[in-house]
Specification:
Layout (H helix, E strand, L loop, with lengths): L7 H15 L3 H8 L15 H5 L4 H25 L2 H16 L12 H11 L1 H18 L2 H18 L6 H14 L1 H9 L9
Length: 201
C-alpha cells in the first residue's frame, strides 16, 4: 500500500468524493434518456453495460461501459493530482464501492466490472491493460462474461506482483474480494452449470 501522507480529514473527503462519483448510475440514466425502458426490469435487473446490452442498443451499452469505467478513472486521477497516491487509491476503491452499492438505489447497484477496469487503468496502466487482456482471453475461451470478470479479478494481484505494482497490491486484494461478492449469484450458477453464455441469455 502507499505511504499515508494525507490527514484523516483529507482522506475522508476523497473517500466521499470517490463514492459519489462511483454511485452515478450511468446505465440507468442512458436507458431513460434513450427510451430503452426501466433497466431494473430488464434481464438481470443490473445497471451495468452487460444488462444495457440486453436492451438491444449497442451504443448505449458501449457508453455505459466507458462512463462506468471513466468515473472511477476520474476519481483516481483527480485525487492523485490534488492530494496524492494514498487519496487516489482510496478514491478509486470508494468509486468501485459507490457503483456497486449506491445510496440512491438502496445500495443495489452494478457488479463493478467496468469500474474495476477503469480504476486499474488509471492507477497503473500496465496492470489495467493486463487485466483487460485477461478478460478478453477468458471471454474468448468460455463466452461467459461473469467468468471472464472473475478470472480477470483473480489474476489482477498476480499481474500487480509480476509488474512491480506492489503499492496497489492490497487494494487489488480488496477489489478481488468485492468482485467475487458482487458475482456471488453468477458463481452459484457457474457451479450449477446454468450460467448462460453470451448471446444465449
Amino acid at each position: 500500500m502507499p505511504l499515508i501522507e494525507q490527514s484523516a480529514a483529507i482522506l475522508a473527503l476523497w473517500a466521499l468524493l470517490g463514492y459519489l462519483l462511483g454511485s452515478v448510475p450511468f446505465g440507468m440514466l442512458l436507458s431513460r434518456v434513450m427510451n430503452l425502458g426501466d433497466l431494473r426490469s430488464i434481464g438481470s435487473g443490473n445497471i451495468g453495460a452487460t444488462n444495457v446490452l440486453r436492451t438491444g442498443n449497442k451504443t448505449a451499452a458501449l457508453l455505459t461501459l466507458l462512463l462506468d469505467g471513466g468515473k472511477a478513472a476520474v476519481a483516481v486521477l483527480l485525487a492523485r493530482a490534488l492530494a496524492g497516491e494514498d487519496a487516489a487509491q482510496l478514491a478509486g476503491l470508494m468509486a468501485f464501492f459507490g457503483h456497486c452499492f449506491p445510496l440512491w438505489l438502496r445500495f443495489k447497484g452494478g457488479k463493478g466490472v467496468a469500474t474495476f477496469f477503469g480504476l486499474l487503468l488509471a492507477l497503473n496502466p500496465l496492470v489495467g491493460l493486463a487485466c483487460c487482456a485477461t478478460w478478453l482471453a477468458a471471454f474468448a475461451l468460455w463466452r461467459i462474461s461473469s467468468l471472464a470478470a472473475i478470472t480477470a479479478a483473480s489474476a489482477s494481484t498476480v499481474w500487480m506482483a509480476a509488474l512491480g505494482a506492489q503499492t496497489i497490491l492490497l487494494l487489488g486484494m480488496a477489489l478481488t474480494v468485492l468482485v467475487f461478492f458482487t458475482h456471488r449469484a453468477n458463481i452459484d450458477r457457474l457451479r450449477a452449470g446454468t450460467e448462460p453464455k453470451f448471446g444465449k441469455n
